[in-house]
Amino acid sequence: MEIIVLILKVLGFGFVAMIASTIIHEGGHVIAGLVQGWKFMVMVIGPVEIYRDEKDDKIKIGIEKNPALWGGLGGTIPRKKSENNIKAYAKILLAGPIASFVLGGICGIFLMMYQSLFMMLMTFIPLSMGFACLLPKARTGLLYTDGGRWLRIVKGGKTLEEEKALFDAAMLASFSPEEKYDEKGVATLIASEDKSFCYMGHYYAYLNAKKEDSAEEMKNRIAMMETLRKDVPQAIADMCVVEK
User: Fold this and answer.
1) CA–CA separation, 143 vs 138, rounded Å?
2) What is the pLDDT of residues 66-108, one digit of tens each?
3) What is the pTM of this model?
């Protein structure tokens, strides 16, 4: 019976600690974005989504339908186009892990004074989350971790161009949804050695062809995506919807 009680405590306290850690981590991203002058758009904690409704520009609460995002998401967007946005984005990426370390450090101090299972989990889980999100080669299910993307940006060169192409593509819907995706950025993604980046590059090229009503080019891009499909995470494939 004592073992069962212990297991239930670990599961219960662990769940609370995980939710609290995710809120702090994603909140770190959001706060850093707001400090940069960016606009709040979304925060996902488990299936709960807090988002800005594009129709009336009001903050609302709903259910996130994509399970791939239930691990947590905090999003802000710049209010205007700028070449410095990618540098600001790099700072925002690091803010999440830093917030996790701060929470883990504070709880660690309390753990030294008040030893308890809950405080131990509140120390271990955010610290683990912070370290995991800094692993440069790991992925979060979609793209690289916060630390991995930060490193790719500050490293410069090809990896910076790839991250910038992804960032600019993501911002297009907010700034100029009627425009085509930047052809240079699309070409950068297609030429990437990373299959997921290449897949998304072909998807953006497909969307450009769709805007031009070029059926043959759309067909070619879909074919290229199909050849890469086996090497791409399901979450990315689900995001890239095409007409067949």
Assistant:
1) 9
2) 887 888 899 999 998 888 999 999 999 999 999 999 999 999 9
3) 0.87
Q: What DSSP string describes the chain?
A: -HHHHHHHHHHHHHHHHHHHHHHHHHHHHHHHHHHTTPEEEEEEETTEEEEE-TTT--EEEEE---GGGTT-EEEEE-SS--TTHHHHHHHHHHHHHHHHHHHHHHHHHHHHHS--HHHHHHHHHHHHHHHHTT-TT-B-SSSB-HHHHHHHHHH-HHHHHHHHHHHHHHHHHHH-TTSPPPHHHHHHHHT-SSHHHHHHHHHHHHHHHHHTT-HHHHHHHHHHHHHHGGGS-HHHHHHS----
Domain ranges of the chain: 2-149, 165-239
Over the stretch 187-211, which tens digit does the pLDDT of each residue have?
Answer: 999 999 999 999 999 999 999 999 9
Task: Say which residues have a Cβ less than 8 Å from residue 184's Cβ, sequence separation at least 6.
Answer: 165
The string of DSSP letters for 31-98 reads: HHHHHTTPEEEEEEETTEEEEE-TTT--EEEEE---GGGTT-EEEEE-SS--TTHHHHHHHHHHHHHH
